[in-house]
Specification:
The chain is an alpha/beta fold. It is about 30% helix and about 25% strand. The chain folds into 2 domains: about 10-390, Rossmann fold, CATH 3.40.50.12780; about 395-500, GMP Synthetase, Chain A, domain 3 (2-Layer Sandwich), CATH 3.30.300.30. The chain is globular and about 70 Å long. Bound molecules: adenosine-5'-diphosphate. Adenosine-5'-diphosphate binds near residues 304, 378 and 482. Keywords: Fatty acid metabolism, Ligase, Lipid metabolism.
């Protein structure tokens, strides 16, 4: 029997209705190159409507349009204007090489690109620079009165994987997936965002739509703070204190830099109470340091193909908090063996995490394969109650003498040593064992490889044969465009370091 409920499409237009009707006096703050813009949702909505007119006048209505931009109000206006006009906003990673930018823009057949001031690339497509004269042009437009009706399954935002595992692959999020995922983030057991929050999104808006946090924040009327072009730890701390940020989100590497700055400068973090960390496992030591300043951590796991946050852990116990957490609403998980058979959730059996849900990729852009369950390439164990622990990425596990070593576990163990700031572990070829672990370590204060090894042994956390054969001190560790340890580059670097006398 059919339901009696009216047809109502779950679209960004529905979020925009709230922005215009319910939260007119709420505020958005954006760091721009020479200033900080503070404006109300009402002014923001008017700018969105003017941008829709601008798109129309340039023949871009309903088209695919690319942005190569940081977290700014100009970018946020495009987040709404492009999908509201029926088009798809393709958020391009600012750290891609111009060749890669051209490749993905061509793949998506973007009709134009909106590019931040600092990006040095000239692409084979019409380009608008996001700067002060752009602001003036938008301001001079008439606000669009009519916005088209949209179907919820229509594409709204697209994004390519950052290519740490090969050639970038495209995914397109729909109005519906953005709506449902953002709604899930608001739930009390997930991020619990509310209109009382001041939210700072440090997750790049060019990657997985900033984990949908901009959409979720505006859905609920929170004050949203956008940290702008290439924010430094000092900029972030200034914004946190001056804007009264209560909740912020970003990759652990961002918070390592922030905490190093805060401790060095004897700063504090104002009203900040919660930091959502994901994209990589947050080191326990980092979470401890934040807790001393009264800041709790939520740990989230997700990927481009799951539209970012898909599991969340909010435990008060730091030993439990290193687990990736529970599936959020509208999302299911399963643990599989290589033949695709389901494995038990016993907290011990390792398998590949497979996922499905209302915001999971069903196929790649131009891809043939259709997924009913998407295999993530992450190796995990799942507790009987559904708490996920990611052991490692399949390709980063180190196979030594036929046994697996988790690079992530070793990295976190090394980083828990107080004399160490950062560490990365990769496997290198070994005649006898197949592979052996080697660590690159950024020290925080003077130490020796022997001291690090002694520390690892003292933990009694894993067998001695896990301990890296070489510990090499370096000044910094190569990161991907999204701030993760770039193991592809690290492997090359380690190879070179081991070859040099
Ligand atoms: P890319 O695959 O291009 O690096 P993604 O941002 O999509 O970009 O990366 C997703 C991957 O990041 C996941 O498959 C997982 O391996 C890793 N990851 C994400 N969040 C966490 C987390 N909280 N803990 C451990 N690994 C994580």
């Amino acid at each position: 029997m059919d339901s009696t409920i009216m047809d109502y499409e779950l679209t960004i237009k529905s979020i925009f209705w709230r922005i215009e009707k319910l939260y007119r006096d709420r505020v958005i703050v954006s760091r721009l190159s020479n200033s900080r813009r503070t404006y109300t949702y009402e002014d923001f909505a008017r700018r969105v409507r003017k941008t829709v007119t601008f798109l129309k006048q340039n023949g871009l209505e309903g088209k695919n349009v690319a942005s190569i931009a940081w977290n700014t109000s100009r970018h946020l206006e495009l987040y709404f204007a492009v999908p509201l006009s029926g088009g798809v906003l393709h958020t391009v990673n600012v750290r891609f090489h111009p060749r890669e930018m051209d490749y993905v823009v061509e793949e998506m057949q973007d009709s134009a690109v909106f590019m931040d001031e600092d990006i040095e690339a000239s692409l084979n497509v019409k380009t608008f620079r996001l700067n002060e004269s752009y602001d003036e042009i938008i301001d001079s437009q008439e606000p669009a009165q009519e916005l088209p009706d949209l179907e919820e399954k229509r594409g709204a935002v697209s994004c390519f994987t950052s290519g740490t595992t090969g050639k970038p692959k495209g995914v397109i999020y729909s109005h519906r997936s953005i709506f449902i995922h953002s709604l899930s983030l608001l739930a009390g057991d997930v991020l619990g965002l509310s209109s009382n929050d001041v939210v700072m999104d440090v997750v790049p808006m060019f990657h997985i739509s900033g984990w949908d946090i901009p959409f979720a924040s505006l859905m609920t009327g929170a004050k949203l703070v956008l940290p702008g072009i290439r924010p430094k730890p000092r900029d972030l701390v200034e914004l946190i204190k001056e804007e009264g940020v209560t909740l912020a989100a970003g990759a652990p590497t961002v918070w390592i830099d922030v905490m190093n700055y805060v401790e060095k400068e004897r700063e504090d973090l104002g009203k900040l109470r919660t930091v959502v960390m994901g994209g990589a496992e947050p080191p326990k030591g980092l979470m401890e340091r934040m807790r001393k300043l009264g800041v709790r951590t939520y740990h989230a796991w997700g990927m481009t193909e799951t539209e970012a946050i898909a599991t969340v852990n909010r435990s008060d116990d730091l030993n439990v908090l290193t687990k990736q957490g529970y599936p959020i609403f509208g999302f299911e998980i399963s643990l599989l063996d290589p033949a695709g058979r389901e494995l038990p959730w016993d907290g011990k059996t390792m398998g590949e995490l497979a996922v499905r849900g209302a915001f999971v990729t069903g196929r790649y852009f131009k891809g043939e394969a259709k997924f009913t369950w998407f295999r993530t390439g992450d190796i995990a164990v799942v507790d009987p109650d559904g708490n996920v622990k990611v052991v490692d990425r399949q390709k980063d596990l180190i196979k030594s003498g036929g046994e697996w070593i988790s690079s992530v576990q070793l990295e976190n163990a090394i980083m828990s040593f107080h004399k160490v700031s950062e560490a990365v572990v990769v496997g290198v070829h070994d005649e006898r064992w197949g592979e052996r672990p080697v660590a690159l370590v950024v020290p925080k204060e003077p130490t020796t490889p022997q001291e690090v090894v002694e520390y690892l042994k003292s933990l009694n956390a894993f067998p001695n044969w896990w301990i890296p054969d070489r510990i090499i001190f370096v000044d910094s560790i190569p990161k991907t465009s999204t701030g993760k340890l770039d193991k592809k580059v690290v492997r090359e670097e380690v190879k070179k370091l081991l070859q040099s006398p």
